[in-house]
Amino acid sequence: MINLSVNVNKVATLRNARGGNEPNVVQAARTCIESGCQGITVHPRADQRHIRPGDVHDLAAMVTVEFNIEGDPRPDLLDLVMEVRPTQCTLVPTEPGEITSHHGWDIEKNEKILRPAIERLKAGGIRVSLFMDPEPSLMEGAAAIGADRVELFTEPYASAKTDPDIATEFARLRESHDAALSAGLELNAGHDLNLNNLHRLQGLPGIKEVSIGHALISHALYVGLSQAVKDFRRACGQKA
């Protein structure tokens, strides 16, 4: 069984489009928790286009499941994480103007910013995950720099259309999964996972958690948020 962490960024995006406090991020997270998810994820970007620091504090005060904060290791993000002490911090590379994250870390290039960030977070009792491309050769580097987990970037797999392409990309995930376990890492996965492709990840028993936002919130527009969480839990192999 894979744990489901619901990313509530899109709830904040909708709220920010109109102003005010509807839809309410905390209420949405509460509904997800009551519907059985095992975690809540947020990605507070520097431009505050969706989740804001106040949301992070509000969620930290009420979340009764794992709390995962994603983001690049910029000083204000690390300070925020250290203030609220979530279960996990997932360090994700970002680029100015990007719509969403679209690649994992180049550890050799970014070691000087990653290593002290990881050390600081782990000293605070926070589990550290690195967002990584599904390349087996990269897993040892993630372990060597001190990460506890890697989150495998699943967009190449999720965007594959033909059966041969799906098989090729899933094989990359499997090889990266095996390499991460051999390096002593635990595994998460995420990006563009949905009800059509999530079920295959049950064949990778080392994956502890998937983080899903856009597809789940989109599905909720049709079936409601509580039912959407239950549908994605089933796709993770859970009894919902």
Question: Explain this structure to me?
Answer:
The protein has 240 residues and is an alpha/beta fold. The protein has one domain (3-235): Aldolase class I (TIM Barrel, Alpha-Beta Barrel). The protein contains ten helices and eight strands. It has helices at 9-18, 25-34, 53-62, 75-84, 107-123, 139-144, 155-159, 163-182, 214-223, 225-235; strands at residues 3-7, 39-42, 66-71, 88-91, 127-132, 149-153, 186-190, 207-212. α6 (139-144) links the parallel β5 (127-132) and β6 (149-153). The longest helix is centred in the last third of the chain and has 20 residues, at 163-182. The protein is globular. The N and C termini lie close together (12 Å). The model has no long low-confidence stretch (mean pLDDT 96).
Cα-to-Cα separation, first versus last residue: 12 Å
As for the CATH topology, it is TIM Barrel
CATH class: Alpha Beta
Number of strands: 8
**Main sheet overview:** 8 strands, parallel, barrel
Rg (C-alpha, Å): 17 Å
Number of helices: 10
Low-confidence stretches: none
- The string of secondary-structure elements, in order, is EHHEHEHEHEHEHHEEHH
**Average of pLDDT:** 96
Strand arrangement, major sheet: 1-2-3-4-5-6-7-8
